[in-house]
Amino acid sequence: MNALGLAKHQGLGNDFLVALLSDAEKADLERRVRDLAELARATCDRRTGIGADGLILATGMSVTQPNSASEADETASRPQVRRVEMTLFNSDGSRAEVSGNGLACLANEVARTFVGGMEISDGAESPDELLALTVDTADGARRVTLSAELATAEGGSLELVEPLAEVHMPHVAPGPDISASLDEHIRRVLGSVQRETGDVGNPHLVINAGRPISARDTADLGAAFEAHFPRGINVEFIWQTEQEDSDSADSSSIGMSVWERGAGLTQACGTGAVTAAVRARDWGLVAPDAETLIEMPGGEATVSTDEVDGHPILSVWVEHLGNHVWPLDAPSLDS
User: Domain 3-64+74-169+319-327 classified CATH 3.10.310.10?
Assistant: First the structure.
């Protein structure tokens, strides 16, 4: 393997480079590139590289086999069920446990990969649920479902139209403690605002700022607040917003800006949106049982509740931006 194929995807302006690798390709990559963190920094650099918030290496993709002959007969009408292992790097080369938008982008690339081999007869309807994907992350398995319209592109190949990913997240657990020095820092800058940490596989600090926070203030305050945590943390500033089409007196919408550990100021954060939505419900900022709309600089996402297990579900539109080829160095002679 002389070059690494990378597909660039974005969800809410949160963009990722995705590589789907066979076991042999992964072994070859690790032989040629001794420092994958440096590979992430190089490819994600927005001046000298391709540019992205993170790099995703996905391996071990497998299709779940039907349990019986009758199930096999129904395969064509069922969503494709696959499993992959995700290794995620932030743009600064640090490893990340999980990313909501990253999971959505990975699912979109997996769907694009297998949809090219599908055949849909004239007049057939696109499946409501195109892909069911289990992703093994550094914090355990995550489930992603992806729906999209299917259209025939020039040349006869199939393409996805307006793919929507639903990322099934764990319950928000307590995050790291807020130290007395951080508490004083927040009070000094923002006053007596609500603030609490949370963890959905990666740590978050959510602050109810009560007003929109500019990009500059998000970057300055986010970096300053994160410095209080030895292992870093994602920082979300939230505030109530009003929905024009809402008929309810209860707000179900919040604004959010985000400072991400390992990536800095970004357009959006999927795990941050989930943590912020749950904290907003805890604080009475939004209706407790309603779907919560999170408005971020990169766009809008929704967080709902799974009716079966009560877990939060992040819904985000994803987009394929293009394919890239990144040349690799030749392997060393002693490898």
Answer: yes
The Cα–Cα gap between 212 and 229 comes to: 24
What is the b/e burial string over 103-125, where b = at least 16 CB atoms within 10 angstroms of the residue's CB?
A: bbbbbbbbbbeebeeeeeeeeee
What SS3 class is residue 121? coil
Contact present, 280 and 238 (Cβ < 8 Å): yes
Residues with Cβ within 8 Å of residue 59, at least 6 apart in sequence:
20, 21, 22, 23, 26, 84, 85, 87
Q: How far is CA 35 from the centre of its chain?
A: 24
The domain defined by 180-309 folds into Diaminopimelate Epimerase; Chain A, domain 1 (3.10.310)
Q: By C-alpha distance, which of 231, 175, 230 is closest to 207?
A: 175
DSSP result, 128-139 = S--EEEEEEETT
Classify the C-alpha dihedral 149-151-157-160 as positive or negative: negative
Distance in angstroms (rounded) separating the CA atoms of residues 21 and 55: 13
Q: Please give the structure tokens belonging to residue 149.
A: 């319209």
Query: Would you tell me how many other CB atoms lie within 10 Å of the CB of residue 73?
Result: 10
pTM of the model: 0.87
Task: Dig out the tokens for 68 from the structure.
Answer: 């019986």
CA 218, 221, 224, 229 dihedral sign is negative
Q: What are the extents of the domains in the chain?
A: 3-64+74-169+319-327, 180-309
> 291: helix, coil or strand?
coil
How far lies 175's CA from each of 139, 202, 237, 279, in Å?
Answer: 14, 9, 16, 12
Distances (CA, A) of 126 to 48, 113, 146, 149, 179: 40, 17, 12, 6, 52
Per-residue pLDDT reduced to its tens digit, 88-130: 999 999 999 999 999 999 999 999 987 765 544 444 445 567 8
pLDDT digits over 195-212, tens only? 999 999 999 999 999 999
